[in-house]
Design a protein that fits this description.
The complex is a heterotrimer.
Chain A (H helix, E strand, L loop, with lengths): L1 H20 L1 H15 L12 E8 L6 H20 L19 E8 L4 H13 L5 E4 L3 H14 L2 E4 L16 E3 L4 H16 L4 E7 L2 H18 L2 E8 L7 H8 L5 E4 L4 H12 L2 H4 L1 E4 L6 H5 L1 H4 L3 E3 L11 H14 L5 H20 L4 H9 L4 E3 L2 E5 L6 E2 L2 E6 L12 E7 L1 H4 L14
Helix pairs in contact in A: 1-2, 3-14, 4-5, 6-7, 14-15
Chain B lengths: L2 H32 L6 H19 L2 H22 L9 H23 L15 E3 L4 E3 H23 L1 H11 L1 H6 L4 H23 L9 H16 L4 H21 L4 H15 L12
Antiparallel strand pairs in B: 1-2
Chain C lengths: L1 H13 L1 H19 L4 H23 L8 H16 L6 H23 L4 H20 L3 H4 L5 E2 L5 E4 L2 E4 L3 H24 L1 H18 L4 H27 L1 E2 L6 H14 L6 H17 L8 H15 L3 H14 L11 H4 L15 E12 L2 E12 L3 E5 L6 H8 L7 E6 L2 E2 L5 H6 L2 E4 L11 H14 L14 H13 L15 H13 L5 E5 L7 H14 L4 E5 L3 H7 L2 E6 L2 E6 L1 H6 L1 H8 L6
Parallel strand pairs in C: 7-12, 7-13, 10-11, 11-12
Antiparallel strand pairs in C: 1-4, 2-3, 5-6, 5-8, 8-9, 13-14
Helix pairs in contact in C: 2-8, 3-8, 3-9, 3-10, 3-11, 3-12, 4-5, 4-6, 4-10, 5-6, 5-10, 8-9, 9-10, 9-18, 11-12, 11-14, 12-13, 18-19, 18-20
Classes of the chains: A alpha/beta, B mainly alpha, C alpha/beta.
């Protein structure tokens, strides 16, 4: 801080003296000084009366449904930040008249559920639109790619949907913050709840999509169920991502002698494998657990099959019944979009508010100051209760909802798919700071 | 080695293969008879599934859904043949690939714009729910029924191809396109019918598969590539080739799953490469047709 | 006229495309900015452009459609990124070179396997290899490639000496590096397509089989083209990873191969700049459409519609379309005219007298047999042709003449028996080697290179004659070779096509095509010429011309001719061999054959055409 203020002083005095000499040198000198103080797009990106935020979501490709939900969360957040309303009115630092008095302007780009286009879009937002913050993405591969872009250009990245441990583990970045529970957190939250419901000494078989996220979830879930519940892992069935027909894998699973089926597949893959598991009678013989439920899985698969299935979610809308902040968010969202928000909308909405709060507290858009404000571990009341980012790995410490699929007869409306069986407090599930493998780069 | 699992996977390979055969048949008919490589085939399959879904949502009848899926694609096929494909018969393969590829994008994104990216549900028909105990295997009833459906479809296709005038022309086209033209057959109408039939086969396959796979706009992407593998293994343009190719592909996926499940898909491509290097025209292909 | 234009343009004209490229690359960033383009997009367009230069040589010029180019793009990119991240080298250009070399080596291996097949099967093989590489990237090699996360954190590097350097990590700085590499790539590609090597590639696209029978080892040419494309892909992939500081797994996606094909055909295959134009349209629209108010959410559908329209309306892509328009506006096309002035200067040499018959056997068949299943098409035919003679081969339809001929030319392998040419055994040598030894066949059904000009058609055998069956000289302008030009001019004059040198072969009249067919064979400077019904389909007056032509050609050349027209046969031949039902039934001078009762009997059911 002292270094900066000294520079600022120098600059001001220099500008004064330059102004005395004439207008032309003033321009030059101010430019050269500005260049030296630049951090990412600061201050170039805050010169006007608005600031730019780049949103990168999948609107085509495998996660297009999630991406559409995600985008709506962003749009609602920006509307509230700019014009007031929703949770913005509950957070004292936020004015409802933009952030630090500047309107938020945003553009979205379709990342097509692929890291390549995501990086391209992020780069364009940063270099052309002078984005002060980027956010979005719905897969860990995309998230990790964007984290590194953010670090390189020194622009803050509020990571969207990403469950892999690496996102705030070995691939963590100073400029990136993640709110979704990691696979580790989900598994640690899940274990006690399923232990209570399914008992100890079970035999579990896993369907694992063959990519980093899949392995991450498998490692964490098998570890906690073995350690805490004494379960045995009797099989790990790897499958290619994007498989349409899981019959050959399900035969192996049916043949494994397990009594619990842990389905790690995500998105459309999870829907297909779950449907087919039902058809193969796997779900009649075994209890199913989905460590990380996809946003629309309940609706897509149907309550008939999802009943009795255990899993975790970033957020489930029935939290509105117990948490006032959740009610404000869910009501505002439903009023605007006519359906219950899913967890990607929740991630987008809360991340934007948390970021805005940090900027207001830092009193500047200077990313270094904003990062420090976020790292101050200041607690905010959000739809999940109190949340904050850990300084050590930039993982949000937040409660993890554990849910079970309702019986069709218990559902009050078609979207009432899950019952929340536990809301495990964040501090109980985050990994110890020294175990994550995260080494944050410099500011 | 777990013998019961081996038998189970062998049987599963058969049903998996049957579904692949169904999907690949439309592609091979169109390519064989018209020489058009239809890259919109996967999209046709997807549109068929969606048409079935819409019909099912309205009527709750699976049979009507199947009819709707097939009929919708017959219509789509006819419209597209008249509106686009016919301008491409005399153009190089690459142009056809591109036009149909673009067409596929349009169809997929139109469906996404209308229905959203969320997957839709077309449940297993009431007569197909549950599972059957085969002694060595507990297997979904619907999949066993699909085996029958595919068999009947193939018999019908066989009769059309080998017992009708239309079939004669189609097969002649596969052997020698020039000859068909020389014989002064009303090629125009025949092409229309063949393209319509091929599209219809894709739509039919889409609905039949819908209760098993997820009905999403991108569902045809994988299907397109797998269909190519199937018809290349079997021999491009060959009825028997598509049949045998599909069954082989099904067994490859299933048997690889016993040993190294993550490799099941790549094994398909490896098999295709090996077949092509050793026996270029495919197992049942007509030599010289390229 | 074209020749005059070309020579008038002189050295300036020859460098015009490169000069245009330099100017284009210089002004591109500022012009592109006017429509909302950015340095980042410009970089991507040029990287795809480099990728496309190689692919155009493979697809646009050689006619080989590959769906597996992502394998080389990804391999080059990941190798380069890995070398820099692992710290094997900290010099980006060294890493790029190694990455490119790696892609090229893979190109040799995949090419050798894939090129065993052609057409759609070749395309499917490349697709299969592409998908296998993707799998290797995602699964077994993920330790090195980062799996689906890709390789990020490619260290910030710069190129240059001392204080003159360019940061590779700013899109603006990277632009100039990529632009220079693009320029080098473009210059090289132009040299390649204008070389004798490039001419042969074109002939493979037009009619690969014919190129083979004219003495080119087309497998080697195809492989070379494949490796060139892989090399360009390697450069592009390496640049892609360098400039983003991140090599995404997308590099190996099937969609990457697909996008390349899309951009190339949309922009115009066979134009070299086409793929870059296609990339410009595709990448710009992809970004711009997303930002339009109503179109945004359905951008991909709109892009699909635009794309289908372009493909449907522009038959040869955007660049091809512009070229056609240009030709219509400016008049006759300059494009494709590569014949130098010497073509016109060359004149018909005075007809030479026939060389005396030496009595030395030049071509011999011993018990040559061909069976197809149970059918014996040619049954133990033996014959000897003496150097300098004109031998006719006659017989009713189905006598086995064409089969016998095809065996002599190496087009089909005999089932039994032996063949000797100039004392050497050529039984299983194959058409390319046989042609290289001076025995060449002209076809009954014209086998030309339809899109090439007459001059360029004849150039193909001339190259085989002058440089051998494989001549990987890629940098010398083929139009500048005096030796070739003289041979082409001489061959054209011999078949009276000098004044048609600049017409595309497909525009020739039938008789002219027949003469060109013979001209192709002549330009290999054969010592023995196999003519399969040279007058087939000709009018009587054309036939007379052809006989005269053949007589003049016969100077110093041994000719074996299959012919139905007995006027031609008896007007030309020194000796006649008669085949019937696959067997030789008679042989001798024309008069003896005319009088031979067995020959008459053979023709009874099938009267002599008159």
């Amino acid at each position: 801080m002292s270094r900066e203020s000294r520079k600022g002083l120098n600059r001001r005095s220099l500008l004064k003296s330059a102004a005395a000499v004439g207008a032309f040198p003033l321009v030059n000198i101010s430019r050269s000084w500005a260049a030296e103080e630049t951090i990412g797009n600061y201050p170039a990106g805050v010169k006007g009366d608005s600031v730019f935020v780049g949103v990168i979501v999948p609107l085509t490709g495998a996660y297009s449904a999630e991406g559409a939900d995600h985008l709506k969360g962003f749009q609602l957040a920006f509307e509230h930040l700019n014009n007031g309303g929703g949770l913005v009115s509950k957070i004292p630092t936020l004015s409802g008249k933009g952030v630090l008095g500047k309107k938020i302007v945003y553009k979205w780009a379709d990342n097509q559920t692929k890291p390549g286009p995501a990086v391209q879009a992020a780069t364009a937002f940063i270099t052309n639109d002078k984005a002060m913050m980027i956010s979005g993405c719905s897969s860990s591969a995309t998230a990790i790619a964007l984290e590194k872009v953010a670090q390189r250009y020194r622009v803050i990245n509020m990571v969207g949907g990403s469950g892999a441990n690496e996102t705030t583990g070995k691939d963590c970045q100073r400029y990136a913050f993640r709110s979704q529970p990691s696979a580790y957190m989900a598994a640690k939250a899940l274990a006690p709840a399923i232990g209570k419901e399914l008992g100890k000494n079970r035999k579990a078989v896993y369907l694992v999509p063959d990519y980093a996220y899949g392995h991450s979830v498998f490692d964490s879930t098998s570890k906690f169920t073995e350690q805490q519940l004494g379960w045995k892992t009797v099989g790990q069935q790897l499958c290619p991502v994007g498989t349409a027909d899981y019959s050959s894998f399900l035969l192996n699973i049916a043949n494994s002698g397990a009594d619990v089926f842990v389905n790690v597949a995500f998105g459309a893959d999870s829907v297909a494998s779950t449907k087919q598991a039902k058809q193969f009678g796997v779900l009649d013989k075994m209890k199913m657990i989905v460590p990380n439920l996809s946003a629309f899985q309940g609706k897509e698969v149907g309550a008939e099959i999802m009943q009795g299935v255990y899993g975790t979610l970033d957020f489930w809308w029935t939290q509105a019944e117990t948490i006032p902040e959740a009610k404000i968010f869910v009501d505002a969202f439903e009023a605007k979009y006519k359906y219950k928000p899913r967890w990607l909308a929740h991630i987008a909405y809360t991340q934007m508010l948390v970021w805005a709060d940090a900027v207001e507290r830092a009193k500047t858009f200077n990313p270094v100051s904003v990062i420090k404000a976020l790292e101050a571990e200041h607690k905010l009341k959000m739809p999940l209760g109190e949340v904050y980012y850990r300084a050590c790995d930039h993982q949000q410490v937040r409660a993890v909802p554990v849910v079970v699929g309702k019986k069709p007869s218990e559902m009050r409306n078609p979207e009432d798919v899950y019952k929340i069986v536990g809301l495990t407090p964040g501090p109980d599930v985050v990994p110890p700071c020294d175990s994550t493998g995260c080494k944050l780069p410099s500011y | 080695m777990n013998w019961s699992l081996l038998w189970a996977q062998l049987f599963n390979g058969l049903t998996l293969g049957a579904l692949l055969v169904l999907v690949a048949m439309g592609l091979t008919i169109i390519f064989g008879a018209l020489g058009v490589i239809n890259f919109a085939h996967g999209a046709f399959y997807m549109v068929g599934a969606y048409a079935g879904y819409v019909a099912y949502a309205a009527t709750h009848s699976f049979v009507l859904a199947v009819i709707a899926g097939a009929a919708a694609l017959l219509l789509v096929g006819i419209v597209i043949e008249r509106g686009l494909i016919r301008y491409y018969y005399r153009r190089p393969h690459e142009d056809q690939i591109l036009a149909t590829f673009g067409l596929g994008i349009i169809l997929v994104e139109a469906v996404r714009a209308w229905f959203g990216g969320i997957s839709q549900r077309l449940p297993v028909p009431t007569w197909g729910t549950g599972a059957v105990n085969l002694g060595f295997l507990y297997y979904p009833t619907y999949r066993i029924e699909v085996l029958g459906i595919v068999a009947v479809t193939l018999v019908v296709l066989y009769l059309v191809l080998y017992r009708t005038r239309l079939g004669l022309i189609v097969r002649a086209g596969i052997e020698d396109q020039l000859m068909v033209n020389v014989l002064g057959i009303n090629v125009n109408r025949t092409f229309l019918v063949v393209f319509g039939l091929g599209s219809m086969a894709a739509g039919f396959a889409g609905v039949i598969n819908a209760p098993i796979v997820t009905v999403v706009p991108d569902m045809g992407e994988l299907v397109l590539v797998q269909s190519f593998v199937v018809i290349v293994i079997g021999g491009v343009g060959s009825f028997w080739g598509a049949l045998i190719g599909g069954l082989i592909a099904g067994e490859i996926i299933s048997l690889t799953a016993i040993v190294q499940p993550a490799y099941s898909e790549v094994m398909l491509f490896a098999a295709m490469a090996i077949v092509l290097i050793l026996r270029p025209q495919g197992l049942f292909g007509v030599q010289g047709r390229q | 006229m074209i020749v005059e234009k070309l020579s008038a343009r002189g050295p300036l004209g020859r460098w015009l495309p490169e000069a245009a490229a330099v100017v284009g690359l210089l002004i591109f960033p500022s012009v592109f900015a006017l429509i909302g383009g950015t340095a980042d997009m410009a970089d991507r367009i040029l990287i795809w452009g480099i990728f496309g230069l190689g692919f155009d040589i493979l697809f646009g010029f050689t006619g080989l459609l590959s769906f597996g180019q992502a394998a080389f793009f990804g391999s080059g990119g990941f190798m380069t990124a890995y070398l820099l991240i692992a710290g094997v080298t900290d010099n980006a250009m060294v890493a790029l070179l190694i990455g490119t070399a790696f892609a090229a080596i893979l190109g040799v291996i995949i090419g050798a396997l894939s090129l065993r097949r052609s057409g759609i099967y070749f395309a499917m093989l490349t697709l299969a290899f592409g998908e296998m590489f993707y799998f290797l990237d995602i699964s077994p090699l993920k330790e090195y490639t980062g799996g689906e996360n890709g390789l990020s954190g490619v260290p910030a590097t710069h190129v240059g000496i001392g204080k003159w350097f360019v940061e590779l990590h700013t899109p603006e700085g990277m632009y100039w590096v990529i632009a220079i590499l693009f320029l080098i790539g473009f210059w090289l590609a132009r040299r390649i397509v204008n070389s004798s090597f490039g001419a042969v590639l074109l002939s493979i696209r037009e009619n690969g089989e014919r190129a083979r029978t004219l003495g080119h080892d087309i497998q080697k040419y195809k492989l070379a083209a494949f490796v060139i494309a892989a090399t360009y892909a390697g450069v592009a992939g390496s640049l892609f990873g360098l400039f983003q500081g991140y090599m995404p797994p997308d590099g190996f996606y099937l969609e990457t191969s697909g996008q390349l094909v899309v951009q190339t055909i949309m922009g115009g295959a066979g134009t070299l700049v086409g793929p870059t134009v296609g990339a410009l349209v595709w990448i710009y629209l992809r970004t711009a459409l997303q930002q339009l108010p109503l179109v945004g959410p359905v951008w991909k559908m709109v892009l699909g519609i635009i794309f289908v329209l372009i493909v449907t309306l522009f038959r040869r892509g955007i660049c091809g379309g512009i070229a056609i328009l240009w030709e219509r506006l400016v008049g006759s096309g300059v494009a494709g005219a590569t014949a130098p002035a010497v073509a016109v200067a060359a004149t018909d040499k005075s007809p030479r007298t026939r060389a005396p018959l030496t009595g030395k056997v030049i071509l011999e068949a011993k018990d040559l047999t061909k069976r197809y299943g149970g059918l014996t098409a040619v049954d133990k035919v033996s014959f000897q042709v003496v150097e300098g003679e004109i031998r006719a081969l006659i017989g009713p339809n189905g006598a086995g003449k064409t089969t016998f001929f095809n065996m002599l030319a190496g087009a089909i392998p005999p089932t039994g028996g032996e063949m000797f040419f100039r004392g050497e055994r050529i039984t299983s040598a194959g058409s390319t080697a046989i042609c290289q030894r001076g025995l060449v066949k002209s076809f009954q059904i014209n086998q030309l290179f339809p899109s090439l000009t007459v001059w360029d058609n004849v150039r193909i055998p001339a190259i085989a004659r002058t440089y051998g069956k494989f001549h990987p000289s890629m940098l010398r302008d083929v139009g500048n070779s005096e030796e070739l030009n003289a041979l082409i001019a001489q061959s054209l004059a011999a078949v009276h096509l000098s004044d048609r040198a600049h017409a595309p072969a497909r525009e020739l009249a039938y008789g002219e095509k027949r003469r060109l067919e013979i001209g192709l064979a002549l330009a290999t400077k054969p010592s023995t010429l196999l003519l399969d019904e040279p007058t087939a389909g000709m009018s009587p007056s054309e036939r007379q011309d052809t006989i005269r032509l053949l007589k003049s050609v016969a100077a110093g050349v041994t000719i074996v001719i299959v012919e139905h027209d007995m006027d031609v046969v008896f007007g030309l031949a020194d000796r006649i061999t008669v085949l019937f039902n696959g067997r030789k039934i008679a042989e001798g001078p024309p008069d003896a054959i005319k009088a031979n009762p067995e020959v008459r009997a053979a023709y009874l059911g099938n009267p002599v055409q008159k």
